[in-house]
Sequence to fold (546 residues):
Amino acid sequence: MALSKQELFDRIRRDSWQLKLSIRALSRKYGVHRRLVREALASPVAKPRKVPVRVSPRMEPYKKTVDGWLRADLEAPRKQRHTAKRIGTRLEEEFGVTLPYTTVRDFVAARRRVIAEEEAVPAEGYLTRHNAPGADAEVDFGEVWVDLAGERVKCFLFSFRLAYSGRAVHRISRSSGQQAFFEGHVHALAVLGGVPSGQVRYDNLTPAVHKVMFRSRLREENPKWTALREFYGFTAFYCEPGLRGAHEKGGVEGQVGYFRRNYLTPVPIVATLEDLNRRVAGFEERELERRIGSRIRTIGQDFAREAPHLLPLSADPFETAMTFQPRVDRYSRITVKMCSYSVPVRFIDRKVTVHLTGDTLVVFDNRREIARHPRLAGRGLEHLVLDHYLEVLLRKPGALDRSEALHQARHQGSFTAEHEAFWAMAKRQLGDGEGTTALVKVLLLHRHQQHADVLAGLRAAVELGSCSEDIVALEARKAAQTAGRAPTVTATTPSPGPPEPLGPELPQVSHLTSRRLAQPLPTDGRPPPRLEQWDELLHLRRKDSP
Fold:
């Protein structure tokens, strides 16, 4: 078995020490030159084999040209740099020389290593920032995927982190727009119970910054963002654009990734974002027991020391909602932020008031709420409610089958299998038009009765083989009474609305309460009315009659 040079050196040295063999004897025993024996006895470590310098006479005239191409690649996009094959092709096209691929490959590999060492940028150093209690904070957005109501959607995680204690407040929304940005601040400051007295560090986010001044820290701010800052009284510090700016608020950059990996993995499955945000609040409470790095105290203990240094909050929160006054089109829709939402058909060609938040869109007619939708994230989307079109469908029943409102109702689960069964039975008994009209009349019952009660009425009507909406209503009332619920839906509290407009007050309508209805009404002693005089109106002659 062939020995390596190092093993040969070890055996020669051992035999020389143990067997006292001479240089000539060692040379004969191992079949090597005496010069190699002397080298082994002089040093226990074998010298590395010399690598011969290979000369490429055919490549020599073009080395400077190829070297220039390789240096130019340092400024080129990563995916558009020269390969060894491309360099060989260029040499053939521009100089008419055909070189072996291995020759070009070996030269390019060697020169790239040398050029990388020559052009290497020295490592950039950083300093640790001193954070005073209650002074500084950092804000950032991060992407997160959520299985929302059976559909995987991309949402955005807002994070507000205090620099001293590491206490962070999070909120998840469908967009990273201005309303979500503002609502995140209002929520975070309310949870923390105060406002940082120093700087709050930001990226150059569009909701806050209109324009970045060239080579400066100055920014042209969004007017409403300036109003929010002045309302709470904190100072904004804007980081440098790009990757360099990320190091200026590294705490929140790492916080977003940490929170996403530890609490939002695997992908959360929720029905609404409100449920998910309630979970997030529970995760934040668990975070108070965590220690950051090698700190002695927990986040909660550090925050207890930091809280007294925060500036006090104002009594009323900042109003983050945006207000619009769009006009309802002939399809009973309004368009807000390039998305369409339905309203009841009686408001067609009228202006309504819209309050837009990060997650919800509420439509008002004066002070009365007439529609409420989840805010859509995207462009050209629409959210239609089937109940808003029932009055039109009474006159045009044939439009229901292929309508977008019905498709969305099926997808959302409000148009159930009970509705489908009743509709199919009604069309068999009454025909398509009259059967659809019967279904629309049943759908109108949802405005006054519980959804579950109407479904129970539909099941009973299908069992009886009746298409009458009166049967459905009666059976729904029976189901409500059996469950101990009120048979009809009544509004107990008024919906919150926009500020009341200036002008004369509308007359108030007083309703009979349940206590007054339970008491017997006083006896009416007046005589019953006589209708004989009104019968004379039946015999009056019209003026245009001969």
User: Anything to note?
Assistant: The two ends are 138 Å apart (CA to CA).
